[in-house]
Design goal:
Layout: E1 6-11, H1 27-40, E2 47-52, E3 64-67, E4 71-73, H2 81-90, H3 103-126, H4 132-153, H5 155-159, H6 165-172, H7 176-188, E5 192-195, E6 198-201, H8 203-208, H9 218-222, H10 231-236
Parallel strand pairs: 1-2
Antiparallel strand pairs: 1-3, 3-4, 5-6
This protein binds FE2/S2 (inorganic) cluster.
């Protein structure tokens, strides 16, 4: 017996820059919207959502597969989620325009991608290139530092209802170029949204990192982090991307 009527696996795989993956195509947003939509329609006890690693259709993400039927959806965007939940999860009608209809073609595509991936891994290993999981751990530290620096500077509060990097730098007293680099990094992590030259707080940043927000957790994030204060580099404009040493 299945514990849930439907079990939905959504790929949230990250890969090194330049390689196609669901994460780079916005899977985190899709998962967030999907969870909210399922909850809003009272399907939480019926439909289990699990973020997972690569499903093998990496060029066409974000991908998801719905069991027990085994329906594979590709290229799912946040705006498609309500239709999938209502049509498929509630009414049992597959959203044909997003579904992969040819099972054999799906199987072949996954197999081809898997073979390519294994061959690539072998070649990288032979060339002495750092394994992805180690590189990802290093990037995780960098992302953490970016967020903690922004919190330390109270940058999200300074963004307010939307601001340019120059306006934020002026408010928090930092170097303009270094501040813009920091804000672009936050935009790539989807904590800020950038339209033209204006940055806006994402819902997550607005909820947790802005002064006066109901779940303000800036103090908790700043406390007890045994690290050098990176914000001094932003103040001095010494934040530059570095080349790895040879
Ligand atoms: S990265 Fe999502 S299917 Fe491969």
């Amino acid at each position: 017996m299945q514990p849930f009527r439907l079990h939905v696996f959504v790929c949230d795989q990250q890969k090194p820059e330049g390689l196609p993956c669901c994460s780079a195509r916005g899977s985190a947003k899709v998962i967030d919207v999907l969870r909210r939509e399922v909850a809003a329609r009272g399907l939480g006890d019926d439909v289990q959502i699990t973020a997972c690693g690569s499903l093998g259709l990496c060029e066409r993400g974000p991908n998801m597969v719905v069991y027990p039927e085994g329906v594979w959806y590709s290229g799912v965007q946040p705006q498609d989620v309500a239709e999938i939940v209502e049509s498929h999860f509630q009414k049992g009608q597959v959203v044909e325009r997003l579904a992969n209809k040819e099972r054999k073609a799906v199987y072949e595509e996954i197999r081809t991608n898997r073979d390519k991936f294994l061959a690539g891994m072998k070649a990288r290993d032979a060339a002495g290139i750092m394994p992805d999981d180690l590189a990802q751990t290093i990037r995780g530290f960098q992302e953490s530092r970016v967020i903690l620096t922004a919190v330390e500077l109270d940058l999200f509060t300074a963004v307010g209802q939307g601001s340019s990097a120059a306006a934020v730098a002026s408010r928090i007293g930092t170097d303009e170029r270094a501040t813009e680099m920091l804000m672009n990094a936050l935009a790539s992590m989807e904590l800020l949204n950038k339209r033209d030259s204006t940055f806006y707080n994402s819902p997550l940043a607005a909820r947790f990192f802005v002064e006066g927000s109901p779940d303000d957790s800036r103090a908790a994030r700043s406390r007890g982090a045994a690290r050098p204060r990176h914000s001094t580099r932003i103040h001095a404009g010494r934040c530059r991307s570095r080349r790895p040493r040879a």
